């Protein structure tokens, strides 16, 4: 079993920045991918960013150039640096990991961007 603990959400004004962290713990042999989804009220959960083996990254078009995903392998932690935040970025952000092809989810952290 793998447990994920997220931190870093909060309230910020438009144009501001936040950094989300997600630390994985438990029985970890091999993490193949880590990333972040978000879900706004009344909307489907959408992929924000992911980082896979080889440090290959992918981003949603809506966050390209503003968000950066990174990973600390030694700490089994994934980060999401969010700059130039917009009100439409308001959502609950969920991190996930694939550990030996099993997907685990964090509890979610609220990000609210005021205009």
Quick gist of this model?
By secondary structure, the protein is mainly beta.
Summary tags:
115 residues, 0% helix, 11 strands, 4-stranded antiparallel sheet, 61% strand, 7-stranded mixed sheet, mainly beta
What does this structure look like?
With 115 residues, the chain is mainly beta. Helices cover 0% and strands 61% of the residues. The chain contains no helices and 11 strands. The strands form 2 sheets. Strands 2, 4, 5, 6, 9, 10 and 11 form a 7-stranded mixed beta sheet that branches. It has a 4-stranded antiparallel beta sheet with strand order 1-3-8-7, with no helix packed on it. The termini are far apart. The model has no long low-confidence stretch (mean pLDDT 95).
Task: Describe the SSE topology.
Blueprint: E1 2-7, E2 10-13, E3 18-26, E4 31-39, E5 46-52, E6 56-59, E7 67-72, E8 77-82, E9 91-99, E10 102-105, E11 109-114
Parallel strand pairs: 2-11
Antiparallel strand pairs: 1-3, 3-8, 4-5, 4-9, 5-6, 7-8, 9-10, 9-11
Q: Over all CA atoms, what is the radius of gyration? A: 13 Å
Strand content bin: over 45%
Q: Please state the average pLDDT score.
A: 95
Helix content: under 10%
Tally of DSSP helical segments: 0
Helix-and-strand structural type: mainly beta
Query: Which shape, going by the Cα principal axes?
Result: globular
- How far apart, in Å, are the first and last alpha carbons? 40 Å
Largest sheet: 7 strands, mixed
């Amino acid at each position: 079993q793998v447990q994920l603990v997220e931190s870093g959400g909060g309230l910020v004004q438009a144009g501001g920045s936040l950094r989300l962290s997600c630390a994985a713990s438990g029985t970890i042999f091999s993490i193949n991918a880590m990333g972040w989804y978000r879900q706004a009220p009344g909307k489907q959960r959408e992929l924000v960013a992911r980082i896979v083996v080889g440090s290959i990254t992918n981003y949603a078009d809506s966050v390209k150039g503003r968000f950066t995903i990174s990973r600390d392998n030694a700490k089994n932690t994934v980060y999401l640096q969010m700059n130039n935040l917009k009100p439409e970025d308001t959502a609950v952000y969920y991190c996930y990991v694939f550990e030996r092809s099993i997907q685990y989810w964090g509890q979610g952290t609220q990000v609210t961007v005021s205009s």
